[in-house]
Structures are given as structure tokens and as C-alpha cells.
What does this fold into?
Amino acid sequence: MKKFGRFTIVIIVGLILLIALSLLSLRLGAVPTPFAEIIEGLMTGEGVVLKYRLPRLIIAILVGINMALSGSILQSVTRNPLAAPDIIGVSAGGGLAAVIMLLMFPSVPAIMLPVAAFAGAMIASLLVYVLSYQKGGVKPERLALCGVAISTGLQALITFIIVKFAVDSSQALVWLKGSLYARSWEHVDMLWPWTIIGAVITFASYKQINLLLLNEETVKGLGMRINAVRLVLIGVAVALAASSVAVAGTISFVGLVIPHAARLLIGSDSRLFLPISALLGALLVTGADMVGRIIIPPIEIPAGIITALIGAPYFIYLLVIRKGT
It folds into this structure.
């Protein structure tokens, strides 16, 4: 009961903060918009808020949920606290495909960029899975090592292409840092089905996720088809992260840091931990996007840079606390 009480408090406080951040995100920007004008625009279906800021806000929330849940799944499946979407090649694969599209095929319609990024993320993740597969299934530690190796190689290719096309690489560099600039309702439609389906499957699988935290022999003794469950959950994590990378670029540290923060608040029981993780992810990306828009207007700092500036020190703090305990 004590945990459920804490869970309720964290959810209520988190939702209040998310609502407050959302209202500020709709109001603030290069040109601040009064709340009365926001309400009028929403009622009439016209204005900058409905056309630009609201879809951007929704995408920030969806991306935060996706990346946080993806990282939570991967850390549980691999039993590795350093696991994140980056480690299975999602970000690097999507980034490479996007850079190729932007720099090598600039005449291709812009709508193809998310499609290419999603395909690249899925192909890279599949390659990591195939290389980490051994007789008897995928071992978590081998998955992590293969993911690091593939991601490093793909990042090298990204760097090579950017250097080769240095004069025209500004747009690609912004995309690689994770930006929500110029996102529209079309991008919302691309993303929300993946978030809904992925979140439902993830929340429904909390028992299996809890069991995967146990010793592998114990899990097999309980009758779980561990390799099949692991494959499905990895697939869900990849789909969540790949859809986010396709729409918003490579927003870093959300899938790495947020699961740790959620566990500190509520513990490792996935029934409570997963919703908290999703909420914290939405808060982080929404806040990062808002700060990036208002800190030095009219210049925008990509949300991925803000999340890295927040996430890197916080992760070091977590490591220091863990070392101290």
C-alpha cells in the first residue's frame, strides 16, 4: 500500500507538471502568445498555436513516452543498467538513413525522410539481433556488445558522409541532434499509433518484464519461453524508439536516464515503474523542447542537445550515488 500511495502522488504531481509545461509550451516561443489568444485559436481552429505549437507539443510528449519505455524494456530484458535505444542500433541506423537521404538524395520529397529513418533504424536493430543470436537464443550481454559495435560503425559512416558533404550538412546536423522544428499534424499521425500500440503491449507485459529481471534458470523453471518473450519485447522497444527517431531525430539520454529516475522514485516493480517512466519521459522531452525554443530566440536549440545537457550530469550523479552505496 505504501508503494501504491507513493505511485499515486508521483503520478498526480507529474501530470500537474506536464499540464503546466504544456501550457507554457503553447504560450512561449519566438513570439509569446497570450492564453486568451491560445483559447481563441483552439476554438476557431486557426492561428499559430493550433498549426505549429500544438502538434509539436504532442510529438514531444509521444517521443518522450516512446524513448522512456524503450529504454525501460531494454534495461530489463538485457539486465543492463546502461542499455538504451542507442545500444541496439536504433539511433545510429535511423541517423545514417536520414543523413544519406538529406545529403546524397536532396531532391527526394521531405515526407520520405521519416520513412527512410524508420527503415534504417529497423534494419540496424535487426542486424544487431542477428549477430547476437546464438544457439539457444540471444544472450543479453552479447546483444549489448553487438549493439555497441554496430552503433559505433554506423556513427563512423555518418561522420564520413557529413565530412564529405560538409558544405550542405547543416540540416543533417540539426536532425541528428534531435529537433522538433517544423513538425506538423502529419508527423503526429505518423507517430501516435506506434505510441499507443507499443505502450499497451508494454504495460500488459509487466509480469514478463518483472520475471526477466530474475536469474535466467529461475525464469525457465517458472515455465516462461524466455527467448520468445525477449524477442517480442525487444521488437516493441525497437518499434517505439524507431518511430521516434523517424519523426524527431536522435534525441539522446531519454531512454538511458529516465528508467533510472523512475526506479529511484518508485522501485523496480514494472507495474508501477513503467507508467512513471513514460510520464517522466514526456516531461523531459516537453521541457527540453520548450527551453530550446525560448532560451535564445529566434534561434532554436534542438531538444536533443537540451536532453543531453540534462541527462549527462544526472547520469553521472546516478553512477556516483550507486558507487557510494
Remarks:
- Residues 48-78 form the longest helix (31 residues).
